[in-house]
Amino acid sequence: MTPVGAETIYPVILKVPAKHRALSGRERVLFLRQYARRAVVLSGGEKGRVFSEIENDADGRPIPVNGCFWSLSHKPEQVAGVAALQPVGIDIETVRPVRPGLMERITDAEERRLADPVTDLVFFRFWTAKEAVLKALGIGLRGLAHCKIFRIVDETSLILSCHQTYWQVEHAFCDNHLISVACQDSNPRLIWIIPESGQETVSFLFNE
Questions:
Q1: How many Cβ atoms sit within 10 Å of the Cβ of residue 206?
Q2: Cα angle 47-92-145, degrees, rounded to a multiple of 5
Q3: Residue 206 — very low, low, confident or very high, per pLDDT cuts 50/70/90?
Q4: Distance in angstroms (rounded) separating the CA atoms of residues 75 and 11
Q5: DSSP of 38-77, one letter per residue?
């Protein structure tokens, strides 16, 4: 149950327009970063926080804007962005087959015992949750060893510990993509903004 007074957060997921999916190399990376920034701005706009320019510091960490923290993530077919009044992280991944070696490198035996069996979907729940928390903390993958899955709550939520702090991470699904959001608030209210099937953009927020 979400506590009274908990912050409401609006993670925004956008599908990359078909005409841009053919891009490659640096051109594609630049477009995806910019498109993910649009998702961040839209997320902030839902909270009444209007900002048109978002930047990273010298270490690549997002710089808060008008007291609003933000995070973004992107894959070739979808991008994600979120803004909140406290540290927040978001990660998106395409669910796909995973090599056993990678699974053992990212998860330990205790974590794998939490799910039986450890499917590709479970792996990406674990992976995106860890990425989201590390982004919220601003420490990046160098903190991965300190990030442990503590408990699977249900199909769309789990609890993770990192540096002796517990985080509740919420998941959403869009086509074959899994998105995770972690916020410093132990139990925020998340309202996901995701395009309907067949849509590329969230049409009620903006038009191409």
A1: 12
A2: 110
A3: very low
A4: 16
A5: HHHHHHHHHTT---S---B-TTSPBPPBTTBEEEEEE-SS
* pTM of the full structure: 0.91
Distance CA 36, CA 33 (A): 5
Do 92 and 128 contact (CB within 8 A), yes or no? yes
CATH number for the domain whose boundaries are 8-190: 3.90.470.20
Strands lying side by side in the sheet with 69-74: 12-15, 78-84, 69-74
Residues with Cβ < 8 Å from 90, sequence gap 6 or more?
11, 71, 72, 73, 80, 81, 82, 132, 135, 179, 180, 181, 182
User: Which tokens belong to 43?
Assistant: 């997320």
Return the pLDDT at 207.
41
Average pLDDT over residues 107-120: 90
